[in-house]
Amino acid sequence: MAAGAGRLIAFEGGEGSGKSTQAKALAETLGAELTREPGGTPLGERLRRLLLDEPSAIDPRAELMMMLAARAQHLAEVIEPALAAGRHVVVDRFAGSTLAYQGYGRGLPLAEVKSACLLASGGRQADLNVLLDLPVSAGSLRRGLKERDRIEAAGPEFHDRVRQGFLAEAEADPVHWCVLDGSLPADEVAAAVRRVVAARLGLSLARGD
After folding, report:
1. Which residue ranges form the domains of the chain, and what is each CATH number?
2. pLDDT tens per residue, the chain (209 residues)?
3. Closest Cα to residue 29, out of 177, 199, 191?
4. In a 10 Å sphere around its CB, with 0-12 CB exposed, 13-18 middle and 19+ buried, how is residue 82 labelled?
5. Which residue among 6, 107, 123, 132 is least enclosed by CB atoms within 10 Å?
6. Taking the complete model, does pTM exceed 0.85, yes or no?
7. Of 10, 9, 14, 2, residue with least CA distance to 148
8. What whole-number distance in Å separates Cα of residue 105 and Cα of residue 88?
9. Phi, psi of 35 (to 5 degrees)
């Protein structure tokens, strides 16, 4: 990839891992486009509300297709135009979350989920996936008594499968993934994120460490 091309950096992790906070911090440091999944577009945000707030059960395959429909629109409308213009994009969740939640968590065949992800993204993958790892119990304590959406409210067994899925994907592809300790104070995590982004992608950051 050319040095001046935009890079796609995805933040991944379980509930309460701090990924949204760190995605925002890195985007501000880089002057990057900040977005999220599911969401990021009018269609994506409508699908997000259905996915997270729908009171009735959603079949796992239907859930997967809704997530990927949101991603396809997100890429076409937001991510690809920004990258083509040379802007960096920081996204709060991307394909890694689909594999972890719908594959490992819901139990859908991983090969099928991976193929579906590639179809929805037109082959686009994140240049770097930053996984903020945190035990499920610690994430639950961080969230406290906050109201939980449909996916957050799934049981601890589900969320432990999700966590193990993230770790398995990171171990299988160390070139495109890095794992950071999400239990550290937010400023320490932010410093670690900046260091790894600079080292892996060769980006010049506004703040040095």
Report:
1. 8-201 (3.40.50.300)
2. 444 589 999 999 999 999 999 999 999 999 999 999 999 999 999 999 999 988 778 999 999 999 999 999 999 999 999 999 999 999 999 999 999 999 999 999 999 999 999 999 999 999 999 999 999 999 888 776 577 788 888 889 999 999 999 999 999 999 999 999 999 999 999 999 999 999 999 987 754 44
3. 191
4. middle
5. 123
6. yes
7. 14
8. 30
9. -150, 180
